[in-house]
Amino acid sequence: MAADRRGELAGLVSAIQTGLEDAHAGRERALAASRRAIRASGSSIRAVHRLESERAMELLAEARAAIAEAQRAVADHPAVAYAGFVQDAEKEVAEASLVLALVRGEPLPDAAALGVEPTSWLRGLTEAASELRRHLLDRLRAGELERGAELLITMDDCYDALVTVDFPDAVTGGLRRNVDALRAVLERTRGDVTTTVLQTRLQRALEARGVTRP
Questions:
Q1: In the chain, is it the N or the C terminus that has fewer CB atoms within a 10 Å radius of its CB?
Q2: pLDDT, tens digit, for every residue of 22-79?
Q3: What's the CA gap between 71 and 89, in Å, rounded?
Q4: In the chain, what percentage of residues exceed pLDDT 70?
């Protein structure tokens, strides 16, 4: 009887080990693909800031292919699929996609179009709105005040939409903290735009009077 029990236990444990080996293999593939998605997403955003739209789209396509690969690798293993690292990579892909669309003034792709979780999309939008600060400052330095003002309005619109999502962090993946951080970025950016506009107006007024600044 003891021998039978020993064999029974060995068979049961062996079956579980096989499942765990599959989950581990899927996790390793998903981790590698998620890292590629994050790298490509970051590079895509940097290309947007350099006004290299075509390159940004190429990198974004790479990122989306990588995140799809990560999702497939853990599709049969929910515990691994929702461990967090895939959702973090989804957030980065959503951010890159939304930054490109916001800067280009195009319709925003929704979560289903990007193939990401809705909460990943929301967190991606928060990060994308914050990322617009860099693009806005670049435009101000280039003397494009109207463009800077447009981007500030876009950041404001994103914040106004996100602040209406009022659910516990367990449901949203910590969205509230991200939105609070966006508010701080938005206020700093508003101050930068106001200061630049006032300085530009003063400079133009002095130039109109024939006064040159030392």
A1: C
A2: 989 989 999 999 999 999 999 999 999 999 999 999 999 999 999 999 999 988 888 8
A3: 10
A4: 96
Please give the pLDDT value at position 10.
85
pLDDT at 205: 74
Integer Cα distance of 161 and 46 in angstroms:
25
Question: Where in the sequence is the domain holding 122, given as residue range(s)?
Answer: 117-214
Task: Show which of 105, 133, 159 is a domain's final residue.
Answer: 105
Q: pLDDT-derived band of residue 2, with 50, 70 and 90 as boundaries?
A: low
**137 in a structural domain:** yes
Asked if the structure places residue 2 within a domain, the reply is: no
Residue 172 CB contacts under 8 Å (≥ 6 apart), including other chains: 119, 122, 123, 165
CATH number of the domain that 214 lies in?
Answer: 1.20.58.2140
pLDDT given for residue 61 in this prediction: 96
Q: For the chain, how many structural domains are there in total?
A: 2
Q: 5 burial class (0-12, 13-18, 19+ CB within 10 angstroms)? A: exposed
Q: Are residues 180 and 101 in the same domain?
A: no
Cβ proximity of 115 and 67 under 8 Å: yes
**Quick one: 17 and 97 in the same domain?**
yes
* Whether the Cβ atoms of residue 28 and residue 74 lie closer than 8 Å to each other: no
- Work out the burial of residue 3: count CB atoms within 10 Å of its CB; fewer than 13 is exposed, 13-18 middle, 19 or more buried: exposed
